[in-house]
Automatic annotation (TrEMBL):
UniProt keyword annotation of Membrane present: yes
Transmembrane segments: 12-31, 51-72, 84-103, 115-138, 150-168, 188-206
Name assigned to this protein: Cytochrome c oxidase assembly factor CtaG
A single cellular component GO annotation: plasma membrane
Species this protein is from: Cytobacillus firmus DS1
Keyword Transmembrane helix on entry: yes
Membrane topology (UniProt): Multi-pass membrane protein
Pfam name, any one: Caa3_CtaG
Annotated keywords: Cell membrane, Membrane, Transmembrane, Transmembrane helix
Top-rank lineage group of the source organism: Bacteria
Localization: Cell membrane
């Protein structure tokens, strides 16, 4: 296997993206700590919120700025791991890490509230995310997105925002936005698990390589331009992605589908358990309150 350092520091560590994320964290703490009193309804930032938000941003850098991002252009399994973390783990961390008063002020901005309320309706949020996720994995669409910088950035951003919308009904802590509770939350979680299955099954059970950006050397090199500077890439003589992977294309592809499904099941299982215990706790509190009032 060829070493990744042949692509250079910029491709491996994305310094510009790192600077952007550091600025984002700085703005977050300026708003939530130093300038908090300038906002209506603000509350002190909790240690838990600060840690969770920072961890979410750290994960974002690890999968989109560190070597795993480059590896995602060389191995399909690495790409699917990226997607699982980007859309199934980071959004709930950011939803929890951003204080409720910031979410409330953002949602109440003129023009945003009706759109936000529509896109976070459970059924709409669930369908939109899974439709866009499934369309992305159609080979023709996948290869088009992976070989054009603007299309790739746009689709990734849209899918990330839809992932936030999808997680919002389950994770948000705003009292006025609790659209799911009890069995509805459980049903929502099961529906998410089912709707994501067809795309994963297509990948897992395919008996041939589906995506040109991992099997066709010309398409692969075009996709590499998204993360490797052109002047660096032009100086390399690369036969294809197989020189960076000990698995066959089909094995790597199947592993990617399996990893995506496993990560999804683990995350949804954790959320399901949390929702169940929350539901049980509230039910017990209600029962105890009724008994005490008898």
């Amino acid at each position: 296997m060829a070493p990744l350092n042949i692509f250079g520091f910029r491709a491996l560590w994305s310094p510009y993206f790192l600077v952007f994320l550091l600025m984002l964290i700085t703005v977050y703490f300026f708003i939530t700590v130093i300038y908090r009193r300038n906002f209506n309804g603000s509350e002190p930032l909790t240690t838990k919120q600060g840690i969770i938000f920072s961890f979410g941003i750290l994960l974002l850098y690890i999968i989109k700025g560190a070597p795993i991002d480059l590896l995602g252009h060389l191995m399909f399994s690495a790409h699917m791991t990226q997607m699982a973390i980007l859309y199934l783990i980071i959004p709930p961390l950011l939803i929890i890490g951003i204080p409720q008063w910031i979410w409330r002020n953002f949602i109440n901005v003129t023009g945003i509230k009706p759109i936000f309320m529509l896109l976070t309706k459970p059924l709409i949020a669930l369908i939109l995310f899974n439709v866009f996720f499934s369309i992305y994995h159609i080979p023709l669409v996948f290869d088009m997105v992976k070989t054009d910088k603007i299309t790739h950035a746009s689709y990734t951003l849209v899918l990330f925002l839809l992932a936030i919308n999808m997680w919002w009904p389950l994770i948000n802590q705003l009292e006025e936005h609790q659209t799911l509770s009890g069995l509805k939350k459980v049903g929502y979680i099961f529906a998410e698990g089912v709707l994501l299955t067809p795309a994963c099954a297509l990948i897992i059970f395919a008996d041939s390589a589906l995506y040109a950006t991992y099997s066709n050397p010309a398409a692969w090199q075009e996709a590499l331009k998204l993360c490797v500077p052109s002047n660096k890439l032009s100086g390399l003589e690369l036969a294809g992605p197989e020189i960076f992977n000990s698995m066959s294309l089909v094995q790597d592809q199947q592993l990617g589908g399996v990893l995506m499904k496993i990560i999804q099941e683990v995350v949804l299982g954790f959320v399901l358990a949390s929702s169940f215990f929350e539901w049980y706790r509230k039910d017990q509190e209600t029962s105890d309150h009724e008994i005490n009032n008898m």
